[in-house]
Every structure is written in structure tokens, then in C-alpha cells.
Design brief:
binds manganese (II) ion; 34% helix; binds zinc ion; alpha/beta; 6-stranded mixed beta sheet; binds ligand BES; elongated
Length: 497
């Protein structure tokens, strides 16, 4: 996998680029190394800062153009704010936020003084840059006029006198940047290109990183009894697939695995309960959960996380057709529980029902996290700011909530309760696939819960966060790659040897 921005980590003394970024805190003082390299810089910054009223606040900057005698074309002074106000997220945002201020097509050196900033800070800054640099332009055949906000610098060097420590910190983050950008690409790809079999092929590429891949075709799925999942795909001319990815990174090969489950509806028309045409094109992103699981498995395997992790994704296309499932149909899921179809547009839960049951019974994981663009109702409740979190386990919820605040992938816990569960009881089968208009995200979650038994479990409804994403300091892509960093950090903080 390649990242779009050419980034290197070098010694402070090797600065030669025509554009220089100097990162300063609110004291505006440069360290010894920078002053040695650029003897008059400190005085210049202080003088310009005074006239421009630049105080070094987080993400504020001034640009100083070089005169004809100067080797430098420009110096950008970037503020970080006071040390006490800086968290991990600020470093990501500082890096990402800088990108649009950098000259398109130029080489840029960024100087950090180690007296003020740690290797981890600098590596987080680099992660922010790489995340913001990602842009999905594969299908544009005409290059646009160079535009600063669209284009990238031709190369960036991050300069620190503790180069090796920064490289080490970056080595843990580079795989994560790749994982996020992989997930984004899967979400951005058009649905005629990325249908279930092609999605499975892309996931299969993780084999190169040491991930064991098991791809189940329709014949094997039928044999396993995944009739709920197959029911969703039966109106499509595209074959359905399930892919199981196993990363065995723990020193104990037998250590109980953790499991991640993703909804992978490569296009959701709604089926016979067809959706209105306005914005239906957005339903190419209805595989954002599966994309996150693939991106996460990339990141875990590429950084050789010391954990046994399983990723499972259900890949189908939901189409109306003479062979499609109808409202009124009753499907028997792999678990044996029967489902009355009320609305064929509530298809994600049918896909998840079978793969949740399969991963739970086959691998007996320590916990399961599923991600799904499951309900429009979660957008009504939480907008695009928070993913909805539903769970039977307080500890897992606390952990994810805390981590989400540091990565910027925020989660908000939503209620489960017996009254909501009752809303999906069916007159004709064990359950029905919708519970009516009220509490739509919760009844969807209860449907899933009926397939995971007592296993600690978190369901993340990412319909508002995975796709059609607003621009942020670390993202300008339609598919956001939401969840890759969150779950990677959950693993890193709590579940490695
Ligand atoms: N994929 C949709 C949910 C969705 C909506 C994702 C908007 C992203 C953005 C899901 O399959 C769906 O259609 N859900 C229905 C459920 C209803 C029929 C109970 C919905 O939310 O309307
Ligand atoms: Mn749907
Ligand atoms: Zn859907």
C-alpha cells in the first residue's frame, strides 16, 4: 500500500527545501538547533509576530516570504498553543490543518524542536498530514489546474534531532494511516466496480501481510445455513461472499481471539421495498462497516500487533428482482431462528445475523465489535458527529468512549431494553426484521443481539460517520475510514500481549 504524500523523517541539520515550516509553541522561542541553522530566524519571527499579532495559538500561522537574498522562498510559522492545552487529537489536527497552507508541488521541511515536542507528538502530526492528504481521484481523467487546496507538496521532510525516535513512533502509525486510507478507498469506489466478489478480492490482498484468508462462496454459505445473508443477495446478479480474516499475532497461538464484524452491502437499493431515488447513489457506501474491518486488519497485521484477531465481513448486493426476497417471506437464519421480512430495506441486520452467529460459535471470541451503516435513524439522533454504540458490556463501552475522544471518532451509547426487544417479536416467526418507526436504531441493535448470546459485544451504527463525511482537519474524503484508528487503539491499549 502506498500513501499519497511523500513523507520522510530527517535530521534537523539537513534542511535544504525552499519552503520551511517552523513549529512553535506560545512562547515563540526556537531551540538551539534551529537557531544554529538559521541564526537570524528567531529575531525575524519575534518581529513579524509582533506586527501581525501572532501569539502561537493552536493552528494559527504566519507566512513570511523570503527576499531575493534568502535561500528560502517562504517560512511558515505554525503555532501549537500552550503545552497544557495540547492533546493527541490536537497533534493530528495540527498536521492535517497545515496541509492546505503548504505550497502545491514544492518540497517542504518542517522543523520541530525536541525540547518542546516529543517523538510521539511529531509522529501524530505526520499521521494527521497523511490522513488529510488522501483524496480519491482515480476516476478523474482530466487533471485540474493546480489548486493549493487540492494539490500536495511534492515532498515533506519532518526534521528532528531525535530522528530515530520519531521514525520508531511513525512505524507504529504508518500502518494505521494505510488502514484508514484503504477503508476510505473501499467506501469511495463505485458499486459497479466494487461488488461482493471484487470486495472479497481486495480483502484477500491482506494475505501478503500474513493474514489468513478464508473466502466462502454461495455454495459454502448455503452449506453453513446462512440463509438470512443469502436471502439479501438473491435478487442480485452478483454472487454473495463472506470473508474471514485471521491475524494470529499473539505469542500464544491458542490465546482467545477478539472479533470484528462488518456489514458489507456493496449497494443497497432497498430491494422490493425500494428506496426513493434522491441520494440513492450514496448507498454505495453501505459497506462502510466491512471497509473498516478490512482497514483495521491491515493496520493490525502491518504493525504486527501482538493479538489474535478475527475480521469477518458479509458481502452482498441488495437489488429488486423477480428472484428477490419479498415482505412476508420467512427466512431461517444459520442460528435456526426464523425471521419474517417486513421491509427488504432492513437488510443489513439479516447479513449480520448470520456472520455474528458464525463468528461467535466457531471462534468463541473474547468480545465482538460489529460495525454497520445500519439505520437512517442514527443520523436523526446523532448526526455525523457520533456513532451510535449499543452494548451488553459496560467496560468495553467505557474504553471505546475514552479512546474516541482522543482519536476524534466519538461514540455515544444508546439504550437497549426488554421493551425495545419485544418490538421485533413476530406473529409468524421468531422475530421480524423491523420494529416500526420508533426507536429504529435500538430495535435494529436488539435484532443483532439475538444472535450473539452472552458474548461481550458492541454494535456501532456508523450510518452517520462512515460515509458522506464532512471535511475535517484530518479528512477530505467522502468515505471517512471511521473506526480504524479507534479500534486499532482499543487493541493497542488493552488487548496485546
Ligand atoms: N443502509 C441503510 C441505512 C443507511 C441510511 C445508511 C442512510 C447510511 C445512510 C439500511 O439498510 C436501511 O435502509 N435501513 C432502513 C431500516 C428501516 C427499513 C427499518 C432505514 O434506516 O430506513
Ligand atoms: Mn437498507
Ligand atoms: Zn443498508
Amino acid at each position: 500500500m502506498s500513501l499519497s504524500l511523500k513523507l520522510s523523517i530527517a535530521d534537523l541539520s539537513s534542511s535544504t527545501a525552499p519552503s520551511l515550516v517552523v513549529v512553535v509553541d506560545d512562547a515563540l522561542t526556537l531551540g538551539k538547533a534551529t537557531c544554529g541553522l538559521f541564526p537570524s530566524l528567531q529575531a525575524l519571527i519575534k518581529r513579524v509576530a509582533e506586527t501581525e499579532k501572532f501569539k502561537g495559538k493552536a493552528q494559527s500561522s504566519i507566512t513570511i516570504l523570503g527576499d531575493s537574498e534568502s535561500r528560502l522562498e517562504r517560512i511558515i510559522v505554525l503555532g501549537t498553543g500552550a503545552a497544557a492545552e495540547r492533546g493527541k487529537l490536537n497533534w493530528l489536527n495540527l498536521g492535517g490543518g497545515l496541509l492546505s497552507k503548504l505550497p502545491n508541488g514544492s518540497d517542504v521541511d518542517i522543523i520541530f524542536e525536541d525540547e518542546n515536542f516529543s517523538p510521539a507528538n511529531i509522529a501524530d502530526f505526520a499521521l494527521g498530514l497523511q490522513l488529510k492528504a488522501y483524496n480519491f481521484e482515480q476516476y478523474k481523467t482530466k487533471k485540474k489546474e493546480a489548486d493549493v487546496s487540492e494539490g500536495l507538496p511534492s515532498s515533506i521532510s519532518l526534521m528532528s534531532s531525535d530522528k530515530n525516535a520519531v521514525r520508531k513512533a511513525w512505524k507504529q502509525r504508518e500502518p494505521v494511516a494505510e488502514g484508514v486510507n484503504l477503508a476510505r478507498t473501499l467506501v469511495n469506489e463505485p458499486p459497479n466496480i466494487l461488488y461482493p466478489v471484487e470486495f472479497a478480492n481486495r480483502a484477500g490482498k491482506l494475505e501478503k501481510l500474513g493474514v489468513e484468508i478464508e473466502e466462502l462462496d454461495e455454495k459454502q454459505l448455503k452449506k453453513l445455513g446462512m440463509k438470512a445473508l443469502l436471502g439479501v443477495g438473491q435478487g442480485s446478479t452478483k454472487d454473495s461472499r463472506v470473508v474471514i480474516m485471521r491475524w494470529n499475532g499473539s505469542s500464544d497461538a491458542k490465546a482467545q481471539p477478539i472479533a470484528f464484524v462488518g456489514k458489507g452491502v456493496t449497494f443497497d437499493t432497498g430491494g422490493i421495498s425500494i428506496k426513493p431515488s434522491a441520494s440513492m447513489e450514496d448507498m454505495k457506501g453501505d459497506m462502510g462497516g466491512a471497509a473498516c474491518v478490512v482497514g483495521l486488519m491491515h493496520s493490525l497485521s502491518s504493525r504486527k500487533a501482538k493479538v489474535n484477531a478475527i475480521g469477518i465481513i458479509g458481502l452482498v448486493e441488495n437489488m429488486p428482482d423477480g428472484n428477490a426476497i419479498r415482505p412476508g417471506d420467512i427466512l431461517t437464519s444459520m442460528s435456526g431462528q426464523t425471521i419474517e421480512i417486513i421491509n427488504t430495506d432492513a437488510e443489513g441486520r439479516l447479513v449480520l445475523a448470520d456472520i455474528l452467529h458464525h463468528v461467535n460459535t466457531e471462534f468463541k471470541p473474547k468480545f465482538i465489535v460489529d460495525l454497520a451503516t445500519l439505520t437512517g435513524a442514527i443520523l436523526v439522533a446523532l448526526g455525523q458527529e457520533y456513532a451510535g454504540m449499543f452494548s451488553n458490556n459496560d467496560e468495553l463501552c467505557e474504553r471505546l468512549t475514552k479512546i474516541g475522544e482522543t482519536t476524534g471518532e466519538k461514540v455515544w451509547r444508546m439504550p437497549l431494553c426488554p421493551a425495545f426487544d419485544k418490538m421485533i417479536d413476530s406473529r409468524f416467526a421468531d422475530m421480524k426484521n423491523t420494529g416500526g418507526r420508533f426507536a429504529g436504531s435500538s430495535t435494529a441493535a436488539h435484532f443483532l443481539q439475538r444472535f450473539i448470546g452472552e458474548t461481550p459485544w458492541i454494535h456501532l451504527d456508523v450510518a452517520g460517520t462512515a460515509m458522506a463525511s464532512p471535511n475535517t482537519d484530518t479528512n477530505r474524503s467522502w468515505g471517512s475510514g471511521w473506526g480504524v484508528r479507534l479500534l486499532n487503539q482499543l487493541v493497542a491499549d488493552y488487548y496485546e500481549d
